[in-house]
Amino acid sequence: MGMTESELYKFLNLAEDYLLDGFRHDHPPLSSGSAVEAGPGTPAGSAPPTAGESPPGAPAEAASGAGGHAAPGSAAELQASSSAEAAPGSLRRQNLDAIAREVAACTACALHRERRNTVAGEGAVDPLVMVIGEGPGAEEDRSGKPFVGRAGNYLDRWLAAIALDRSSNCFIGNIVKCRPPGNRDPLAEESATCLPYLKRQIEILKPKTILTLGRIATQILCGRSEGIGRLRGQELEYLGIPVVATYHPSAVLRNTDLRAAVWEDLKRLRAAVELKP
Ligand code: URA
């Protein structure tokens, strides 16, 4: 079951309060308009948590409510609702595993030469959100898992702030599945060669919404050419699936001025998840 506008407004206020200050504030009741427009404003400085901030249990508390009951829109409740609509999970898992095996054996572009491990992606098989990054970095190349370095920890905190997480209701993938040497941008031919794997993953997963992280992921998935500063905030889609674009967590770690924009994008993502049947 989705949240009403008023529940969404309260939930986002609560998450923002805990993430920014560690305690709850009083907020005026929702008057009119959409929850996201009228919802928790982003006063100067409002933003998702910095990588170093750690309000213990804040997002989880915001998501699960007092007394251990699943709050409307909590990860547990949302997972249950999306599972009900999903095709058999075991078949999806098998198909995803088959793609991961193909990726592990892939030598279609030069990136395979220097990789230690391929990073096919991981997460829920009936996700509310598919998160798409650019390509593995050093730690992902070592572990074979997406977004496990500093940027990955930061990403986990963004997701937790809106009751999402990589194991129960998100799937995390990348445009290219092998690390570009020195963390350079993937070349156009490398992205083009690898893209069919991602497209097949999306087809299997059928996420309700997609979150693209950074310019490369957004441009390539949506076939656009503008910078991320222009792309974010636009109504984007991939084959009818709404795409919310935001900055890459690594960019936000380098430039904390981007945090307020990311928080706006995360609120839009949350609203998109709620709206999509
Ligand atoms: N950056 C990305 O774009 N993807 C990862 O998996 C890790 C870092």
Question: Can you characterise this structure?
Answer:
This protein is an alpha/beta fold. It has one domain: Uracil-DNA glycosylase-like domain (Uracil-DNA Glycosylase, subunit E, 3-Layer(aba) Sandwich). Helix content is 45%, strand content 9%. Helix 1 packs antiparallel against helix 3 and helix 5 packs antiparallel against helix 8. The chain binds uracil. Uracil (URA) binds next to helix 7.
Radius of gyration: 18 Å
CATH architectural designation: 3-Layer(aba) Sandwich
Point out poorly predicted stretches.
31-45, 53-84
Number of strands: 6
SS content category: alpha/beta
List the secondary-structure elements in sequence, H or E: HHHHHEEHHEHEHHEEHH
Distance between the terminal alpha carbons, to the nearest Å?
9 Å
CATH level 1 name: Alpha Beta
Gist of the model:
This protein is α/β, with parallel strands linked by helices.
Q: Any chance you could write out the topology, listing elements then pairs?
A:
Elements: H1 5-20, H2 35-38, H3 58-64, H4 75-85, H5 89-104, E1 122-123, E2 129-133, H6 138-143, H7 150-161, E3 170-174, H8 188-205, E4 209-213, H9 214-222, H10 228-231, E5 236-238, E6 241-246, H11 249-254, H12 259-275
Parallel strand pairs: 2-3, 2-4, 4-6
Antiparallel strand pairs: 1-3, 5-6
Uracil is lined by residues 119, 133-137, 140, 146-147, 151-152, 174.
